[in-house]
Amino acid sequence: MLRIITDSGADITNLDAGALGLDVAEIGISFEEFPYDQQADTDFSVFYENLTRSKKLPTTSQVTPGQYLDLFEDARAKGDEVLVITISGALSGTYQSAEMAKEMSGYEAISLVDSRQCCLSQRMLVEHALKLRDAGQDRAAIVTALEELREQMVLVVVLDTLKYLKKGGRVPPAMAFLGEVLGMKPVVTVRDGKVEPLTKARGLDAGKRALWAQFEKDGYDTDFPVVFGYSQNAERGEAFMQETKEKYGIADCTLHPVGGVIGSHGGPGGIAIGYRKK
To answer: Is the pTM of this model over 0.85?
Structure first.
């Protein structure tokens, strides 16, 4: 059997992971004295409630080598092969932890893939790997497919506020204040494994238009689903998905909440789209 392991950067809850036949290694998130876990979708809402109340941003920590080592040793004891798909190595040391654990385990039947993605686009790679596994593809073939696919994935996000970027020191306070006054919505994407600014939009409607413009520029592969995301505001996410679905005649799409790994920096109220470009 091939055991697939990802981390909580993919925003797949432990509840969903169990149904999918997947293991999720937790990237640590803590609000001062207490930790946050994403066991089910309801925990995403709890995270944003804590985020909006907290004066400080939560701290995040990479998956430890010890967490991976426990999973690897359990797999070896059961005779399973292992495929690990991590959040982008440019965003977290989680991939390096998996490398260390593989070396410590001495178990050869382990493959590691740096997704070079996060949240929705990382999730899409994981779900594709599960689909290939269930279709009978072997570990080497799945690794080859993922290494090609990861370069074609696109994730674009509209943040609702500059407040949390300011808290994290990513924008100066004066810029954040002016941005809030003008209703500016940062639009960001993943490029070369890093989250980078794409443009700024004045208001949510302009933010949607910016997402659609990138979607049209890239084109999308209709053989893959289009995945939509939201941070806390499910109604906003649902409305954006329906608008986009009708606008482009999208037949295969899903909607998922964005959790704390990326939400720590983006805050609530955001919307996102992930897809495979043509």
So the answer is: yes
